[in-house]
Design a protein that fits this description.
Order of helices and strands: EHEEEHEHEHHEHEHEHEHEHEHEHEHHH
Strand content: 15-25%
CATH topology of the largest domain: Rossmann fold
Shape: globular
Radius of gyration: 21 Å
Mean pLDDT: 92
Helix content: 40-55%
Distance between the termini: 19 Å
Low-confidence stretches: none
Strand order of the largest sheet: 3-4-2-1-5-6-7-8
Largest sheet: 8 strands, mixed
CATH architecture of the largest domain: 3-Layer(aba) Sandwich
Number of domains: 2
Structural class: alpha/beta
Number of strands: 14
Length: about 400
Amino acid sequence: MKILIYGINFSPELTGIGKYSGEMAAWLTSRGHEVRVVTAPPYYPEWKVGIGYSSFLYKIESLDECMVWRCPVWVPKAPNGTKRIIHLLSFSVSSFLVLLRQALWKPNVILSVEPPLFCAPTNLIVSKLCGARSWLHVQDFEVDAAFDLGVLSSPRLRCIVSKVERWLMIKFDRVSTISDQMLVRLGSKGVLPGKQVLFPNWADIDHIRPLDSLSIYRGQLGISASNIVFLYSGNMGEKQGLEIVVEAARELADCKNIVFVMCGQGAAYSRLRDLASGLENIHWLPLQPLDKLNDLLNMADVHLLPQRADAADLVMPSKLTGMLASGRPVLATAFEGTQIAKVLEPSGVIVPPEDAGLFANAMVSLAENTEQRQRLGENARNYAVEFLGRDAVLTQFEAALLECISHKE
């Protein structure tokens, strides 16, 4: 197959959509497929363009045997609603002609990764020009999230944008997303069942696995073997609701055996550091390289997965796969019946979103119950091995791609 991937995030970004898109492209090339990528320079989650790249220049490079076209993008230092829209729009504009030229390559399928939905029209246009199949992969329901999280607020604007989103989605030959609940939402947006594909995020279960010894990070941070570590690792953005971690840390400041580690960067990082001023039970780490990820995740006795109440089933956190693969329990904020709650039922503890008191109480309970942590952790690892292995997930996706290309509608 000749596969053209079109999205704003890609390798060498270490977290989120860029990580998965990069691994997907590398896996597909290893299977003998030709893969090209049109993307932006790496900037996430720091919201700062990586060294060796430019916000304003086009660049072509080879990465994991893929030809990658980097297109200019405006990256705001302090992203908010309006700035995020301009940011996404800047990429869709700068990448239009680049993607248009790829029609001469005659790809079999053009895969757009949402966000941003701004790229969807270009995919549809180029697909028609070159006879390729059009595929939209929804990592986040960005339109719903923007309004439900208060990034955008106008009811009239929501009505208009939702209609545009629906019109675009139903034009694609296939629309995939990462969880069962998100598939249901695709249906509510008019995507027919025959066009829907479940394409979950995955874990490298060979690389991310439980360690038999203590993580090197405990020694580096001066955390003893008897301390119970609650770890958050990933993007520090607004939709995570990470304030609840800082509030719980403040409430548990006198519990000397409980230690918090916050690892990552993002739009809310500075605000969270200010909020945590004076707390000595939180360690802060920058984003860590991939070759240290297993040691980082194994530092945790319990992983933390906070989510804002209004983010419910709009997103399925990509970081969850690594948490489960590491064989550690997960303490998450979610409502019953959501996808996160269903996945974590045998391998974690769920409390309602935005209730710092219940969040802290759950931490104390987990800290005091070694057997519970061990049982939940074993269940987490078993789930990852059975359902989240990278080869298994991507093999099913490859089959869906082949079916899409061969299917005549």
